[in-house]
Amino acid sequence: MESKSIATNKKALRDFFLLEKWESGIQLQGSEVKSLRAGEVNFTDSFARIEKGEVVLYNLHIAPYPQASYLNLEPQRPRKLLLKKKEIEKINGLMTQKHLALVPTRIYFNKKGWAKVELALAKGKKLYDKREDIKRRDIDRELKRAFKGKKRGG
After folding, report:
1. pLDDT at position 2, please?
2. For the chain, how long is the longest CA-to-CA vector?
3. pLDDT tens, residue by residue, 70-122
4. DSSP state of 35
5. What DSSP string runs through the chain?
6. What's the DSSP call for residue 126?
């Protein structure tokens, strides 16, 4: 599936173990789509919550589109995410059972040109988990350098 990625939530990848992922639509208004196409989106502290059988995304900052003048909306307003009822029930069940968070991991346009948000059920990492990730990344980097040196020398 080809999709044009707009933004990735790197903080979520760093701070959480991502367990399951879902693709959802996002309810946008007015010039928000043009701002997304321009890449004017920021995931800082964004999260999703289930309220009254609907998934709502909070703190996703979509910058106002400059050419829209007075028609711009609040940049960090809550936005409804479009999922099927069975998916919402499944997510809600998993969240309440296992005390998990629902975080957006990336936002993109699919083949048809629709804006989509990738949501993930996430479990928070402890400080020692983050240190393990850093160690693993450093070891992988050193191994790649060693193999790269052998290829050039050999």
Report:
1. 61
2. 64
3. 767 788 889 999 999 999 999 999 888 888 889 999 999 999 989 999 999 98
4. H
5. ---EEEEE-HHHHHHEEEEEEEEEEE---TTHHHHHHTT-EE-TT-EEEEETTEEEEES-EEPPPGGGGGGPPPTT--EEEE--HHHHHHHHHHHHHHT-EEEEEEEEE-TTS-EEEEEEEEEEPPHHHHHHHHHHHHHHHHHHHHHHHHHHH-
6. P
| pTM for this prediction | 0.76
User: Token digits for 66?
Assistant: 């400059």
Residue for token pair 């009254």: 52
Instruction: Match domain 4-125 to its CATH number in 2.40.50.140, 1.10.3720.10, 2.40.280.10, 1.10.260.40.
Output: 2.40.280.10
